[in-house]
Amino acid sequence: MGRFDLRDRIAALDPERDHLEIYQLSSGREFPWDYTRALEFALFRTYCVPSISKLLAATGEFRERPQRRYDDTALLMAEMAAHGYDSGRGREALKVVNRAHGRYAISNDDMLYVLSTFIYDPIDWISQYGWRPLHPHELTAAFHYYRAVGHRMGIKDIPDSYHQFLAFKDAYEIRHFVFSSTNREVGTYTVDLFAGWFPSFLRPAVRLGVRGMLDDRMLTAFGFDPAPRWVGTLATAGLKARARALRFFPPRRESVLARPKRNHTYPGYPAGYQPSDLGAPPPPADLPAEHLRSSRQGQGNIDMP
């Protein structure tokens, strides 16, 4: 198999009709490491919105169980991508996601924004650090894939086109990326989580490196001091050197989506586990009522699909 055979296979598919297959090839075989890193930063980016960070801080999940929340999100999204959102495991994963979100008073616009980051943040990352440019079909397929997931989550008013949704994301960030203490709180817990994956002597460097990867708008919203300019320059140079080296690697023959790596919360996953075993616990008893979905709001997306 040639290095660009999978890209050529993607080019021969229809990005709307075959969006799941294209997304599986792109995220599971062509750019698996890049998608993982980009989706980590995509979630991190959503914590710059005070209405999102305020709820996350109130639940205490980032204070008490940051690793479990990370693992739940990563594994549930992997289940949908690996098996398809309409497969048995994909539908079960969606139900777990919907029940978790359905307990809380989350605005549709906040849900829309989070969904948009899953499309465009990996595209931005791979455009800068990928070993090859994304094919236009990969861009369009990512939009159609997450649009289908969003519909099954009960998210309303998802824009009809790739460019309309991107415009929504950009405008949302301009309006809503402002500093709040809960942004900083949740952001700090997340940086500490990232640093905790490394030996203790490397953790200060990881914290500095994460700050070096954040843009000015994110730094302001989190209230983080910018890292020295050389940190971002060094990180960018390293990632681009990695991309150049990968051009000479043989193509991946198996998708990583079907065999997620060992994680801290669920050793050995997926052996012996079902998607229903994942997910956050019920809201804490002392959670302020403003964060809970009221009976007048209905059940919304809890039981979809």
Descriptive account of the structure:
By secondary structure, the chain is mostly helical. The chain has one domain. It contains 14 helices and no strands. It has helices at residues 5-11, 19-30, 32-46, 50-59, 61-64, 66-83, 88-102, 108-129, 136-152, 162-176, 181-196, 203-212, 216-222, 229-246. α6 (66-83) packs antiparallel against α7 (88-102), α8 packs across α10 and α12 (203-212) crosses α14 (229-246). The chain is globular, with a radius of gyration of 19 Å. The N and C termini lie far apart (38 Å). The relative contact order is 0.19. The model is unreliable at 295-305 (pLDDT under 50). It comes from Actinoplanes derwentensis. GO terms for molecular function: oxidoreductase activity. Residues 259-305 are annotated as: Disordered. Residues 58-231 form the ER-bound oxygenase mpaB/mpaB'/Rubber oxygenase catalytic domain. Pfam families: MPAB_Lcp_cat (PF09995).
Topology readout:
Elements: H1 5-11, H2 19-30, H3 32-46, H4 50-59, H5 61-64, H6 66-83, H7 88-102, H8 108-129, H9 136-152, H10 162-176, H11 181-196, H12 203-212, H13 216-222, H14 229-246
Number of extended strands: 0
The biggest sheet, with number of strands, parallel, antiparallel or mixed sense and barrel status, is: none
What's the helix-strand series?
HHHHHHHHHHHHHH
List low-pLDDT spans. 295-305
Shape, principal axes of CA atoms: globular
Share of helical residues: 55-70%
Domain ER-bound oxygenase mpaB/mpaB'/Rubber oxygenase catalytic: 58-231
Protein name: ER-bound oxygenase mpaB/mpaB'/Rubber oxygenase catalytic domain-containing protein
Biased composition (Polar residues): 295-305
GO molecular function, one term: oxidoreductase activity
